[in-house]
Design goal:
Order of helices and strands: EHEHEHEHHEEEEHEHEEHHHEHHHHHHHH
Distance between the termini: 72 Å
Strand content: 5-15%
Largest sheet: 3 strands, parallel
CATH class of the largest domain: Alpha Beta
Structural class: alpha/beta
Radius of gyration: 31 Å
Number of domains: 4
Shape: elongated
Strand order of the largest sheet: 1-2-3
CATH superfamily of the largest domain: HUPs
Bound molecules: glutamic acid
């Protein structure tokens, strides 16, 4: 059975880059009628925070990305210990004692000699006595997995055939000197024991994948299908990594972005398929095809989310926004009219408040010097509110007759006087909602 997982580390809020990973894994599972696991990679007790676990769940719930199961690595440490023991028994795990400074020095030397900076496995030559001495002097060492120095091949769901020479990769550290289990081993054990069949993650994990395949094989696990999506860049191709903090899902939500807009964009961006607004995850899943994604860096522009958001809102029936509108204090008898009038003039739901403020309090009039007398005269012909759907037509006919103005010269100064803006809903509709006309003096 198809099983995928989204495996965030709860060390921060999740952002658009994480969403891409989550969504791809979610869609693969949903399309296949399989299982989607939310796996919290919290083996780092210092950096992992419960508040982030809660936030990750809330963000996924907001998007409707429901998981079938949640797993926490911090609750599975005994499994990782067992795997570590197994690797030790097999002679694939060794303790190494170099300090970070020593490792750095080795790397620099190798680079100076034009060699790749791969760990030289000096620890493999240590006698038991030497190890005991080092352990006494320096405390416990780190534990490294001994790679088989052969090529590691897989057919990547996005990148195609990949072949990595294990000799060009350092034996990965799986357990830190302080005993902390590192992600690589935890992830391998989980993917194997949880029956994960497909792993989609960012292309920054390609080298990890090579080592993880070897560890999986060593532990006798089934290697899943891997796919590595490209990383996101800004609209000009600039690295996004530093700005991802400002592209947290909760910030986008706070900015008024609708979930469907975000999902529709992220499920297609970087693929050969067009980005079109889809109103449900089912519809998004229908056309989703991992094979359509390219390996080139994917440009992401948060501004693209706004037209999609506006488009979504325009499709909503009144019932879907009735609560938002009631919360603004729009009287019940005007609420539906307010929605039909405002919805084509908003980008996000937040804009509703601006329109209601305007209708409720009237706008600061904008009157050009040359229109001052004209507007003053027009205002003498306008009765006090409330108005209805006929008011605008009647009033402008009277003003036209009285002043001789017509067309834009007649309508635009009146729109500006009543709404303070050059554009907006039909004035006939504005009048139905306008509670105060400040230009009346
Ligand atoms: N916790 C890892 C990360 O966020 C998971 C990577 C993976 O999908 O294996 O990078």
């Amino acid at each position: 059975m198809t099983t995928t997982r989204f495996a965030p580390s709860p060390t921060g809020y999740i952002h658009v880059g994480n969403l891409r990973t989550a969504l791809m894994n979610y869609l693969i599972a949903r399309k296949a009628g399989g299982t989607f696991i939310l796996r919290i990679d919290d083996t780092d007790p210092e950096r992992s925070k419960q508040a982030y676990v809660d936030a990750i769940q809330a963000d996924l719930e907001w998007l409707g990305l429901s998981w079938d199961r949640i797993e926490r690595q911090s609750e599975r440490l005994d499994r990782y210990e067992a795997a570590a023991d197994k690797l030790r028994e097999m002679g694939r795990f060794y303790e190494a004692f170099e300090t970070p400074t020593e490792l750095d020095l080795k790397r620099k030397k190798q680079l100076n000699m034009g060699k790749p900076p791969v760990y030289d496995r000096a620890a493999l030559d240590l006698s038991d006595g030497a190890k005991a001495k080092l352990r006494e002097e320096r405390g416990p060492g780190v534990w490294r997995f001994k790679l088989d120095q052969e090529r590691i091949d897989w057919t990547d769901g996005i990148l195609g055939d990949i072949s990595i020479d294990a000799a060009s990769v350092s034996d990965p550290v799986l357990i830190r000197a302080d005993g902390q289990m590192l992600y690589t081993l935890a992830s391998v054990v989980d993917d194997t024991e949880m029956g994960v069949t497909h792993v989609v993650r960012g292309s920054d994990h390609v080298t990890n994948t090579a080592t993880q395949i070897q560890i999986m094989r060593a532990l006798g696990g089934t290697v899943p299908d891997f796919a590595h999506h490209s990383l996101l860049t800004g609209p000009q191709g600039e690295a996004l990594s530093k700005r991802l903090g400002t592209l947290a899902l909760r910030d986008l939500r706070e900015a008024g972005i609708e979930p469907e807009a975000l999902l529709s964009l992220m499920a297609r961006l970087g693929s050969s398929q067009p980005v079109e607004l889809r109103m449900s995850l089912d519809e998004i899943a229908e056309g989703f095809d991992l094979g359509q994604f390219g390996s080139a860096p994917t440009k992401f522009d948060a501004n693209d989310l706004y037209p999609l958001t506006a488009h979504k809102l325009q499709q909503l029936p009144f019932e879907a926004v009735a609560d938002d509108i009631a919360a603004l204090g729009v009287p019940a008898d005007l609420a539906e009219t307010f929605w039909t009038v405002a919805r084509d003039n908003i980008t996000t739901r937040k804009d509703l408040a601006k329109w209601w403020d305007l209708f409720r309090d009237g706008a600061e009039p904008v009157i050009a010097d040359e229109d001052r007398d004209f507007v003053a005269q027009a205002m003498t012909l306008l009765p006090p509110p409330p108005y209805d759907g006929e008011t605008w037509g009647k009033w402008t006919s009277e003003v036209k007759e009285a002043t001789g103005r017509k067309g834009k010269g007649l309508f635009m100064p009146l729109r500006l006087a009543l709404t303070g803006q050059k554009s907006g809903p039909e004035m006939r509709d504005v009048m139905r909602l306008l509670q105060v006309v400040r230009a009346r003096g």
